[in-house]
């Protein structure tokens, strides 16, 4: 019977999660977020990712610039 109990428990969890989604809420680590809050959270994640990509590109550009300066300096020598 433990297998049956586990399946019933899983089904009830799915039903609860579905109801939370229908009500416009979802549980995230025990915190209830509205759809608007989820949207803001998603936008923040995208903004953070974009900022990281831009930072990487700017660091890469500085590194490339330094390599070019070193190459020019080496050619002059």
Secondary-structure topology with pairs:
Layout: H1 2-22, E1 25-28, E2 31-34, H2 35-76
Antiparallel strand pairs: 1-2
Amount of beta strand: 5-15%
- Structural class of the secondary structure composition? mainly alpha
Rounded to an integer, what's the Rg over CA atoms? 26 Å
Give, in order, the helices and strands.
HEEH
As for the number of domains, it is 1
Question: In terms of quaternary structure, what is this?
Answer: single chain
Low-confidence stretches: none
Task: Supply the number of helical segments.
Answer: 2
Overall geometry: rod-shaped
Strand order of the largest sheet: 1-2
Q: What is the CA-CA span between the terminal residues? A: 83 Å
Helix share, percent: over 70%
Strand segment tally: 2
Question: What do you see in this structure?
Answer:
The protein is mainly α and 77 residues long. The chain has one domain (2-76). The protein is built from two helices and two strands, in the order αββα. The protein has helices at 2-22, 35-76, and strands at residues 25-28, 31-34. A hairpin with a 2-residue loop joins β1 and β2 (31-34).
């Amino acid at each position: 019977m433990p297998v049956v109990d586990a399946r019933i428990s899983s089904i009830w969890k799915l039903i609860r999660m579905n109801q939370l989604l229908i009500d416009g809420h979802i549980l995230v680590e025990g915190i209830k977020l509205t759809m608007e809050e989820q949207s803001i959270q998603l936008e923040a994640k995208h903004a953070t990712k974009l900022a990281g990509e831009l930072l990487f590109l700017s660091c890469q550009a500085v590194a490339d610039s330094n390599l070019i300066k070193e190459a020019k300096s080496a050619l002059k020598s």
